[in-house]
């Protein structure tokens, strides 16, 4: 039996072979060569090897043009990269990274062949993002030297590298590749072996749900993508990202995740199979969820599913004055939005004192905008003058749009809508800002359900561009048109969706957050590593645990319970760890402790 790897048995990882010179392999080779490693690029397709060399030549030329490399550094980098079509070229490598197609048969064939070629102390890394590292290692003659080294695309730009250990992996191998990743300027995250690892494990479940949402015709592809970009600050919407990744690739990852988890959230949405089998795999084929100018082009062109550019056959009702019910952060933010856009605003609360307090809060917000140069002193004063605080909903008698932003309690909202029904003039639009309750239940509290609609603003309302426009089965077409016109006039981006729990953003966001909690609960990865993985690998502005602590664990739990109750999917059941923290009063930043502890203000 061969001796196990030890820290002393591993030579420094100076010569590295990259097997498979597609987009990812070429990117990894560039990173290694620019960091001073001798790189042996191997691909059985001579054209692929030639293309990889040309890509490195072009990438380094661009780097020189941008002042990131000198000509001498470029020459040295190119000299360190050699290409071959025979695996035997890896004989002297200290590390071999395989990035061949996502197939057990192909990867196992490569790893078995390498067993007979490389030195006993050579580390073998698989670049898989979907297959079991343990299964691949078990088929090797020396499983202790096999691990996962998952770079993200494009490898030169993306900082995250997931270092994946199986139960067979020697600690020395993990240490060696972790140190290499650090030396490359990457941020390595240590994870265990399960399909998708951390970043893809969380990301692909979310992408799958977005695909299912589109397939159900719940919302258009454009509205789903806009909602997640504007509501969550993501660099790309989920359907555009699926097209970029490759719909066939996404389906492969999800199949592997589902095989391991049996979680219905990971069962690939049927539309992914349909598009894949039709050859509509995304950007690379020129068509996926969207249609592109040409295969490989990022330019989206109009197709049969593109929404018409005209406003539609129905005109909205005139809106000149707005009533906002509530005195909290959301209510004052919405009132500020309308006042800045030139609307006369009545802000009503349980007492006139509370309403005056909301107006004072708006005044401070407007003053900050003046200080930051976003508006003039005169414009701020005019906006504040348009706001009239009151302690009586009777002052909503003449408003054209009455909008509530009170507590997220159905009974409270229904009572308020019954009041709107009595005091608001005929033809007034009645809107709720609920994020989780059924809009139709508010509508049924009135005698005019056709006038009721959801307008879900995001916090802080003055800054966030998104408004989810939620029609019920009873909402009138002219009411819907009115709200879309109003959104445009206050410079918000409206997205249409139906009246079901979570609408678009929360229905996609909170299962992702819940799955992150489950990863920690199962001791699969640490809070810090998961947050780093999603920021660096997924482009998220905040990691899931940072976001949970900001939103509030109690708020998050309440939304997850609503989603679980509505969709009845076991995979949506709130993670017990989240329930335990809420029960203990650890609600996030607002209490000083959630998933992390915070300094007292």
From TrEMBL:
Organism: Streptomyces lannensis
3-hydroxyacyl-CoA dehydrogenase NAD binding domain ranges (all copies): 15-193, 322-499
Location of the 3-hydroxyacyl-CoA dehydrogenase C-terminal domain: 196-292, 502-598
Pathway where this protein functions: Lipid metabolism; butanoate metabolism
Keywords in alphabetical order: Oxidoreductase
Superkingdom of origin: Bacteria
Family: Belongs to the 3-hydroxyacyl-CoA dehydrogenase family.
Pfam families: 3HCDH, 3HCDH_N
Name of the protein: 3-hydroxybutyryl-CoA dehydrogenase
């Amino acid at each position: 039996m061969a001796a196990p790897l030890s820290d002393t048995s591993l030579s420094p990882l100076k010569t590295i072979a990259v097997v498979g010179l597609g987009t990812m392999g070429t990117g990894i080779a560039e990173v290694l060569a620019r960091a001073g490693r001798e790189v042996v690029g191997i691909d059985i397709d001579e054209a692929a090897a030639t293309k990889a060399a040309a890509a490195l030549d072009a990438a380094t030329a661009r780097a020189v043009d941008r002042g990131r490399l000198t000509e001498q550094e470029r020459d040295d980098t190119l000299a360190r990269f050699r290409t071959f079509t025979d695996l035997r070229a890896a004989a002297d490598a200290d590390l071999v990274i395989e990035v061949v197609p996502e197939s057990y048969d192909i990867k196992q064939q490569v790893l078995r062949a390498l067993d007979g070629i490389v030195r006993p102390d050579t580390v073998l890394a698989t670049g898989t993002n979907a297959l079991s590292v343990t299964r691949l290692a078990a088929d090797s003659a020396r499983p202790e030297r096999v691990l996962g080294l998952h770079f993200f695309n494009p490898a030169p730009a993306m900082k995250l590298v997931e270092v994946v250990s199986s139960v067979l992996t020697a600690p020395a191998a993990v240490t060696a590749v972790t140190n290499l990743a650090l030396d490359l300027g990457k941020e390595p995250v240590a994870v265990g072996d399960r399909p998708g690892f951390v970043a893809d494990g969380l990301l692909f479940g979310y992408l799958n749900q977005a695909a299912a949402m589109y397939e159900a015709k719940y919302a258009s592809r454009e509205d789903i993508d806009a909602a997640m970009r504007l509501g969550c600050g993501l660099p790309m919407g989920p359907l555009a990202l699926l097209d970029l990744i490759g719909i066939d690739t996404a389906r492969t990852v999800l199949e592997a995740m589902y095989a391991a988890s049996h979680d219905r959230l990971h069962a690939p949405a049927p539309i992914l199979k349909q598009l894949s089998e039709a050859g509509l795999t995304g950007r690379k084929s020129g068509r996926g969820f969207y249609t592109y100018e040409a295969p490989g082009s990022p330019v989206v062109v109009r197709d049969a599913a593109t929404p018409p550019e005209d406003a539609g056959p129905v005109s909205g009702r005139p809106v000149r004055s707005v009533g906002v019910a509530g005195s909290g952060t959301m209510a004052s933010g919405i009132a500020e939005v309308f006042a800045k856009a030139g609307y006369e605003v009545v802000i009503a609360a349980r007492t006139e004192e509370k309403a005056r307090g909301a107006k004072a809060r708006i005044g401070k917000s407007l003053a900050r905008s003046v200080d930051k140069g976003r508006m003039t002193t005169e414009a701020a004063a005019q906006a504040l003058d348009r706001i009239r605080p009151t302690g009586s909903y009777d002052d909503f008698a003449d408003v054209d749009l009455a909008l509530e932003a009170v507590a997220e309690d159905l009974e409270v909202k229904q009572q308020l809508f019954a009041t709107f029904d009595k005091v608001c003039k005929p033809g007034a639009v009645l809107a709720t800002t609920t994020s989780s309750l059924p809009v139709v239940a508010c509508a049924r509290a009135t005698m005019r359900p056709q006038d009721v609609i959801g307008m879900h603003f995001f916090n802080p309302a003055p800054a966030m561009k998104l408004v989810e426009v939620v029609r019920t089965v009873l909402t009138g077409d002219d009411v819907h048109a009115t709200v879309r016109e109003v959104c445009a006039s206050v410079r918000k981006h409206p997205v249409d969706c139906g009246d079901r729990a979570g609408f678009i953003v929360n229905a996609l966001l909170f299962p992702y957050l819940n799955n992150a909690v489950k990863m920690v609960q199962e001791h699969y990865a640490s809070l810090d590593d998961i947050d780093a993985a999603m920021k660096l690998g997924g482009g998220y502005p905040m990691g899931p645990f940072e976001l949970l602590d900001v939103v509030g664990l109690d708020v998050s739990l309440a939304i997850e319970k609503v989603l679980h109750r509505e969709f009845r999917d076991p995979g949506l059941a709130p993670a017990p760890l989240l329930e335990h923290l809420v029960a203990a009063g650890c609600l996030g930043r607002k209490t000083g402790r959630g998933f992390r502890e915070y300094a007292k203000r």
